[in-house]
Write a structure and sequence with these properties.
With 98 residues, the protein is mainly α. Helices cover 47% and strands 5% of the residues.
Length: 98
C-alpha cells in the first residue's frame, strides 16, 4: 500500500494504490480492481517493473486521453525498464480513444 503524504490533512483518500503479494509468495492468481487514476499513479510512481507491467495491462481496459498520455509518458521515461517501455508502446497501440 502506498500512502499519499499530502493527503493527511485534507479530505482526499490517503491511499494511492494497493498491491497484494508483491513478492509472489502465494500460488494463486489475483484479480485487482482499481480506478484508472490509481493504475496511472501506480505506473508513474511505483519503481517495481512487475507492478508497472500490471498497471499497463489494467490500463488497457480504460481507454481515455489520460490513459493514452500515461502510456506516452511511460514510453518516453528513460529510467523505466525497457520491457515496461515496450509494453507501454504495445498498450498504446491497443487503446483506441473515441
Amino acid at each position: 500500500m502506498r500512502m499519499c503524504p499530502h493527503c493527511f490533512h485534507s479530505n482526499e483518500v490517503p491511499i494511492l494504490w494497493v498491491r497484494v503479494d508483491p513478492d509472489y509468495q502465494w500460488i494463486r492468481q489475483l484479480s485487482t480492481e482499481q480506478s484508472d487514476t490509481t493504475w496511472q499513479h501506480m505506473l508513474r510512481y511505483e519503481r517495481d517493473a512487475t507492478a508497472q507491467l500490471n498497471a499497463l495491462e489494467a490500463l488497457e481496459e480504460y481507454p481515455s486521453i489520460t490513459t493514452r498520455d500515461c502510456f506516452k509518458e511511460a514510453i518516453l521515461t528513460s529510467c523505466f525498464y525497457y520491457q515496461v517501455r515496450l509494453q507501454a508502446a504495445r498498450s498504446l497501440a491497443k487503446v483506441r480513444v473515441t
